[in-house]
Amino acid sequence: MIRMxxxxxxQLVDTVLRRxxxxxxxxxxxxxxxxxxxxxxxTSHGVYRLPGCxxxxxxxxxxxxxxxxxxxxxxxxxxxxxxGAFAQCAFHAGMPLLVEKARSQxxxxxxxxxxxxxxxxxxxxxxxxxxxxxxxxxxPSHAWVAPxxxxxxxxxxxxxxxxxxxxxxxxFIFDFATSAAARGEIDLHRRAGKPIPPGWGIDQDGQPTxxxxxxxxxxxxxxxxxxxxxxxxxVELIAGPMxxxxxxAESLAFDxxxxxxxxxxxxxxxxxxxxxxGAEAELHLQRAEAIFDGILAQGxxxxxxxxxxxxxxxxxxxxxxxxxxxxxIQALGGLA
Length: 336
What we know:
By secondary structure, the chain is an alpha+beta fold. Helices cover 44% and strands 18% of the residues.
C-alpha cells in the first residue's frame, strides 16, 4: 500500500486528467468527486475509477471539454445538457437554479441529459442537504443486472440516493445500488483474487457463482429479489424515458463493447421543508431527530456514518492506495 495525503491524491488525479486533455472545469469537478470517494473510504468510487475515466476518453465515449447547457424549462424544472461530458460539471451548472426553484416552488427537478456517469450519487445529494433541502437522485447505468427470476442482464446497477438535512449534524444520506453490490466492488474482488459472496452474481447459464470474473461476464443480481428488481425498473423509467434519455440496455449498446462508463441521464429531486412546512419546519425537522436517536440507541448505525468517520480520519492520517493501482495511475500521468 502507498500512503498519501488527500492533497497528494488530488494533485495526482489532477495531473492525470490534465495530461489527457480535460478542461480545467472538468479537472476540478471530476477530481473533487474521485478524491471525495477516497477520502470517505469508498475505495470502489475513489482513485480506482480514474483509469476507467481515461479509457472512456480514449474510446471516444466522453468529451473532455464540453460545456454544459442549462435550460429553465418550467417553474419547477431544470434541464442540463452535458453534451457528452462527465456529469459533474452539468450538476454544478444546474444546481443553483435547482435550489432556487425548490425554495420558490417547494419541490423542483433537475434532469441531466447526455452525460457520462462513473461515480456514486451522494456527491450530488450532500450539497443539496447543505442548502437545507431534502434530495433524491437516480441514474441508470449499463445493462449488467438480471431482473429477479431472469438470467440475462437488462438493468443497470441503478443507484438511488437520498439526503436529509440535519442542522448542526452531518446529513442523513444513503446511496446504494439496486444490485446486490456495486460493479466496482465485484471488480475489486477480482483484482484481489477474492471470491464474491453468494447472491451477488450468476454465470452465463444463470447458475450461482462466487467467482467475480464469472459474475462480471454473466449477470449481477438485484438485492432483495423482486423488491430490488422493481426499484431497478423504477430507476430505468424515471431516469431514462421520463427525461428523454437512455435505458441501461441502450447505454450498453452505445458503448459498442469499449467497456466505457455508462452514458445517459440523471434525475435529481429537491424538496424544501421550509417552503412546505413554513413556520413549523424547525419543529418537524427536530421531530425527525427522534428517528435517528432511536436507531443509534439500539446500537445500529446511520447510513453514511462510516463515511463521515473515514472522512475525519483521512483528513489527519491520509489514505492508502494499493501499489499496483498507484503505479497504474502514475503511468497514466506520465510520472512512472
